[in-house]
Write a structure and sequence with these properties.
The strands form 3 sheets. Strands 9, 10, 11, 12, 13, 14, 15, 16 and 17 form a 9-stranded antiparallel beta sheet that branches. The protein has a 4-stranded mixed beta sheet with strand order 3-2-1-4, with helices on both faces. The chain folds into 3 domains: 79 residues, Rossmann fold (3-Layer(aba) Sandwich); 66 residues, Dna Ligase, domain 1 (2-Layer Sandwich); 198 residues, ATP-grasp fold, B domain (D-amino Acid Aminotransferase, Chain A, domain 1), CATH 3.30.470. Helix content is 30%, strand content 27%. It is of the alpha+beta class.
C-alpha cells in the first residue's frame, strides 16, 4: 500500500518511519516547489504530483497550510483523508470559530476583524486585554499581537492597518485567565472507531511549545469528558479519518478550545515511547483501514522540544529512559530541530530524568525544563 503525504517536514518523516514496519510505502509532496520527494532524504523521486496521486492508495497531510490548489487537486482524487473541509478548518481561524460555534463547543469570546476600526467595538465588548491572531498562516507565536491595556490600542491599530484584513481577517479574542494548557490527541478510523490518548499538559514559551507532559497531572473525569465530547463532535461533523489534536485552555473545571489541528501534533510526540502505538502509526493505520492501536499510557512521559540550538551533548543518550529524535535541519532561531522523549513509572521518576537531562543541555534554550521537573517531583 502507498501513502502520499502533503508536506515534507519532520511529521512526514515520522509517519514514514512508523509506516515502514507495516509494509506501507510513504512519499511526500514538498508543497513549496510542488515536487514529490523521499520524506527522509528529501531527494526528488522524479515523479509528477499527478502520477504520485494515481499511484497512491491514500493521500494525507502533515500540516494544514497546504496551498489550496494542491488541496483541491488532492480532494478531487477521492483519496484524501482527512478531507479538505476538515483541513481548511484547521488552517483558517474564521472557519475554525464558525464550526466551534455551530457545534456549541466552548471557546474564547471573540470578534472577527476585517477593518481596524472594529477593534474599538472589540475592546468595548471583550475588554482591553485581547490576543489578536491572523486567521491564516499563523503558528508558533507568529501572526499574533497582544493588547495588554487600552493605551496600546492606537499603536496596535496603526500596526494592523498595514495588513490586508479583507483577505486575511483577524480574530480578536478575550484574553483568558487560564490555569494551564492541555491537548487531546485522538484518532478515528475508517469505520468510525475512536481511540484517545491521555490529555497532555503543554508549556509554552514565546508562543512555542517547549514541554509536554502526559498523562497531564490532576485530570478529573469531568475534564476528560469535556475534551472527548469536543473531539467527538468535531470528527462526526467532518466524517473525519486520522489523528486530530484539540488544544484547550483549562479555566477552573471547564475547558475552552484554543485551536484544532487536523493532523499529527507536536504535543503527541511523547506517544513514540509512552504508548504501544504512537500517534504517527495510528494515523497511518486509520487512513489505510488497519485496526487502531492501543493508546493507553505505559507510565509518565515528557516531550522536550529542541528549538533553535544544536549545542547540546549527545551524551544525553546515556540517560536511562531518554530518547532523541532529530529532524536533520540547519539551525535557525525558533526552528524546531528535534525533540527528546523521557519516560518514568511515576511523576517523581520522570522529574529525576528531566533534571539529569538538564546537565547535558544549554539550559537557556530550555527555559521550562527545570521548573516543570520541580513541579512533577512534588506530585508523588
Amino acid at each position: 500500500m502507498k501513502v502520499l503525504i502533503y508536506g515534507s517536514g519532520q511529521l512526514a518523516q515520522m509517519m514514514y518511519l512508523a509506516a515502514v514496519p507495516l509494509g506501507i510505502q510513504v512519499s511526500a509532496v514538498d508543497v513549496g516547489n510542488h515536487t514529490v520527494v523521499d520524506p527522509i532524504s528529501k531527494r526528488s523521486l522524479e515523479l509528477s504530483i499527478e502520477d504520485a496521486i494515481e499511484q497512491a492508495d491514500v493521500l494525507s497531510v502533515e500540516f494544514e497550510h497546504v496551498p489550496e490548489d494542491l488541496l483541491e487537486q488532492a480532494q478531487s482524487s477521492g483519496k484524501l483523508l482527512p478531507n479538505s473541509e476538515a483541513i481548511l478548518a484547521g488552517a483558517d481561524r474564521v472557519r475554525e470559530k464558525a464550526v466551534l460555534s455551530k457545534l456549541a463547543i466552548a471557546n474564547s469570546e471573540h470578534r472577527i476583524i476585517t477593518q481596524v476600526e472594529q477593534l474599538d467595538e472589540a475592546v468595548e465588548t471583550l475588554g482591553d486585554k485581547l490576543i489578536i491572531k491572523a486567521s491564516r498562516d499563523g503558528y508558533d507565536g507568529y501572526g499574533q499581537w497582544r493588547l495588554a491595556h487600552i493605551e496600546q490600542l492606537d499603536s496596535l491599530k496603526n500596526t494592523l492597518s498595514q495588513l490586508d484584513l479583507q483577505n486575511v481577517p483577524l480574530i480578536a479574542e478575550k484574553m483568558v485567565p487560564f490555569e494551564r494548557e492541555l491537548s487531546l490527541v485522538g484518532v478515528r478510523g475508517l469505520q468510525g472507531d475512536i481511540q484517545f490518548y491521555p490529555l497532555a499538559e503543554n508549556l509554552h514559551h514565546q508562543g512555542q511549545l517547549h514541554v509536554s507532559v502526559a498523562p497531564a497531572p490532576d485530570i478529573t473525569e469531568n475534564l476528560n469528558q469535556q475534551a472527548q465530547l469536543a473531539f467527538k463532535k468535531l470528527v462526526e461533523e467532518y466524517d473525519y479519518v486520522g489523528v486530530l489534536a484539540v488544544e484547550f485552555f483549562q479555566v477552573g473545571d471547564s475547558l475552552l478550545v484554543n485551536e484544532i489541528a487536523p493532523r499529527v501534533h507536536n504535543s503527541g510526540h511523547w506517544t513514540q515511547q509512552g504508548t504501544d502505538t504512537s500517534q504517527f502509526e495510528n494515523h497511518i493505520r486509520a487512513i489505510t483501514g488497519l485496526p487502531l492501536g492501543n493508546t493507553k499510557a505505559k507510565g509518565k512521559s515528557a516531550m522536550i522540544n529542541i528549538i533553535g540550538c544544536d549545542d547540546y551533548s549527545t551524551d544525553l543518550l546515556s540517560i536511562k529512559n531518554c530518547h532523541l529524535h532529530l529532524y536533520g535541519k540547519t539551525v535557525r532561531p525558533k526552528r524546531k530541530m528535534g525533540h527528546i522523549n523521557l519516560t518514568g513509572k511515576t511523576y517523581s521518576e520522570l522529574a529525576e530524568v528531566m533534571t539529569t537531562l538538564a546537565k547535558f543541555l544549554p539550559i537557556q534554550a530550555f527555559p521550562k525544563l527545570l521548573d516543570e521537573a520541580d513541579k512533577l517531583a512534588a506530585i508523588d
